[in-house]
Specification:
With 117 residues, this protein is mostly beta strands. It contains no helices and eleven strands. The strands form two sheets. Strands 1-3-4-11-6-9 form a six-stranded antiparallel beta sheet, with no helix packed on it. The two termini are 22 Å apart. The C terminus is likely disordered.
Length: 117
Amino acid sequence: MVGGVTRIAAESGSFAPTNLVDPELLLSGDPNDRGVSLFASADGKVECGLWACDVYEERLPSYPMDELFVVIEGTLVVTVDGHEPETFSPGDAFVIERGTPCTLDFKAPVPQVLDDL
């Protein structure tokens, strides 16, 4: 078995526009989303990186992947259809499962770590 340790760190200048927010799903604001990929598994099933955005809100009828969020800065309100809104702040971690219908409301600029499960 081969193992290893990968440090997950990025220089601030390494962030590039990601354009992950579909303009047709945008409810308000300007995402200005940007990020950097810091690790990808050989089989492509896991990717880790940093992602940041400005204040905006979007409606996702079906979340496109299983995603782990760790909020480093900012505030995000996630409202899953049929449930009460949940607010996430620095230090909070949560997973949104693929296919989840939800609204994401980034109340303050958010740099965040993301892992695609």
